[in-house]
Amino acid sequence: LLSLAGFHLYIYQQLFTIRSVFKNPVLSALHCVDAGRIVPFWSSETDEAPVDMELSFISQGHVYEYGFSLFHGAVLTESLALDNHIVFTRTGDQIRPGKVYEKFMPERMNIRIRSNCLFCTLLSCMDIPAILEMIRPFEYYFSHGISYYFDFVEHLKLWENSREEKTVYRLLEKSEALNYALEHMRILGIPVENVIYEHGIPKIGYRIRSPRTGRFLVHYACISEFSNGTIKLLSVFEEIFLLMKRGGTLVIDNISNDVHPAVTKYMVNLFQQEANENAQLIFTTYDTSILNNRQFRRDEV
Asked: How sure is the predictor about 197, in pLDDT bands with cuts at 50, 70 and 90?
């Protein structure tokens, strides 16, 4: 999944500003620790081999196929297809538009492109209606269409406040997302009630039974007092809520970490329900019980 994030980052930092990169915790972490460089995983026999990466995705009703190959930071090849029509192919600095698009780009093809730049960056700058109509859903996917949850980000001290506090502050600003998260956590048997501010500190209300009176009480505790699993669910359910509305892909590294297998199945079921037409889930897991032919087709694993 880090390779997907690295692919995403390489495109993202060329299409958008560095300031935008730091708004995404995962891309920001990759950028800061220099893990965003796309290099072969093993260096013994692959130092002289290019890295090939390609992604097929749907954005705003269109099917895109985009990929490139890199060698020591230079773009060797690049290609983009939209709805089974080639937009362009690239070899080195030579660009060949597809038949549907050659009438829009012939006079632009003599422009020399730096070896470390993607041609899609140039397309995004062209003030040609047909090109803009094609490139805007492409840009939207890489700016809003991919969300991440990586546990390792939790431990990188890149922010003034902890990730957990930021999760709650963000949820408090989005009441619909907060209610969605709390509702599904209650369905899973986690007795959360609400989230409040107390002296500027976000606290979660947790329903408990008094051992003395037998009555149910709501105990408010700082977010730092709750388990990693509870915090993870708050964050993941927020992302699910937003993706169900706008569409896109949620990438989760080790989805089963810190949660019960039944919770993993519940989250997967949310994406597999018939009502979901916009959101996709990609995840890794060590819990093989979820990888069965009742839950997934063979080609989905």
From this structure: confident
